[in-house]
Specification:
- The protein is an alpha/beta fold.
- The protein is 39% helix and 15% strand.
- It has 7 helices and 7 strands; from the N terminus they run βαβααβαβαβαβαβ.
- It has helices spanning 11-22, 34-37, 39-47, 62-75, 101-122, 157-177, 205-216; strands spanning 2-5, 26-31, 52-56, 81-84, 137-142, 182-188, 228-230.
- A 7-stranded parallel sheet has the order 3-2-1-4-5-6-7, sandwiched between helices.
- β6 (182-188), α7 and β7 (228-230) form a beta-alpha-beta unit.
- α1 (11-22) crosses α7, α4 packs parallel to α5 (101-122) and α5 packs parallel to α6 (157-177).
- It binds NADPH dihydro-nicotinamide-adenine-dinucleotide phosphate.
- NADPH dihydro-nicotinamide-adenine-dinucleotide phosphate (NDP) binds next to α1.
Length: 238
């Protein structure tokens, strides 16, 4: 499989890239500043020549994503899976009175508009039911339990609301592309030990990455009416 991943330089994104390579897949590993922050990706590339493409990409910049898509077209690249992983957790004020609306804007930019932008421009390069490949293609938007309306906790407005919107996008996208044989999931990866999750989190991001790859490879079936699931394929409360 050829797997496209955003925010692949660290945290869950890097683990997903490394796990995909371990399983024999190829990756298009995107990050905004590979020269500065891509050291682990370059090591992965050296280790597996020909299977790791490192793309410098600012996913919030539509013109840049369009240019990236044009390059894929020129190269005749087909994509089996998109993992929209990059996100920010900012503006952790717990009271509405302290809320900085700029944090709402930047969170929606990266956590919602960027994945939409990516899918908008990369959809033409995804394998479709009509293609030779028997495996369905997958779009995986990395979400969070924080985006569950059912479990709303009255804090983290920018992050929680942007992930709730991402879940809605996933659901709408599922309706739009399911006839083409493309599966769409909005995946809660667990509370993970990453820069975002902190050192006390219970989940190793490598375990989350393995679960996500199992879903992409259809080793775990997630036949849920709603797209929002966890990394083991279990339904999440929307
Ligand atoms: P990290 O903070 O460790 O990594 C975030 C990644 O997103 C980095 O690669 C970062 O790139 C990239 N990124 C952030 N802002 C931008 C931007 N403006 N443009 C491009 N790339 C950007 O996060 P995690 O690995 O922990 O999180 C991965 C996913 O899992 C996210 O979607 C997150 O919401 C979700 N999640 C995480 C949980 C956790 O406990 N960690 C819990 C639930 C969900 P750079 O290095 O350039 O900043």
């Amino acid at each position: 499989m050829n797997i496209w991943i955003s925010g692949a330089n660290r945290g869950l994104g890097y683990e997903a890239a490394a796990e995909a390579i371990r399983r024999g897949h190829s990756v298009i590993a995107c990050c905004r500043n590979p020269q500065k922050d891509g050291e682990r990706l370059y090591a992965l590339q050296d280790h597996c020549p020909g299977r790791v493409v490192i793309a410098e990409l600012s996913i919030t910049d539509e013109a840049m994503v369009e240019k990236h898509a044009a390059q894929l077209q020129e190269q005749g690249t087909r994509i089996d899976a998109i993992i929209n992983n990059a996100a920010v957790l900012v503006g952790r004020e717990h009271s509405l009175e302290e809320l900085q609306l700029d944090n709402m804007r930047s969170s929606f930019e990266i956590n919602v508009f960027a994945p939409m932008n990516v899918v908008k421009h990369l959809l033409p390069f995804m394998k479709q039911r009509a293609d030779e490949s028997a495996e369905p293609a997958v779009i995986m938007n990395v979400s969070s339990e924080a985006g569950s309306i059912h479990h709303a906790y009255g804090g983290d407005y920018p992050y929680a609301m942007s992930k709730a919107a991402l879940n809605m996008f996933s659901q709408q996208l599922r309706s739009y592309v399911e006839a083409r044989g493309i599966h769409v999931y909005s995946v809660h990866p667990g509370w993970m030990r990453t820069d975002m999750g902190g050192a006390n989190a219970p989940t190793d991001p490598a375990d989350s990455a393995r679960g996500m790859l199992d879903l992409i490879e259809q080793r775990v079936e997630a036949h849920t009416r709603l797209a929002f699931i966890d990394y083991l394929g279990r339904p999440m409360d929307i």
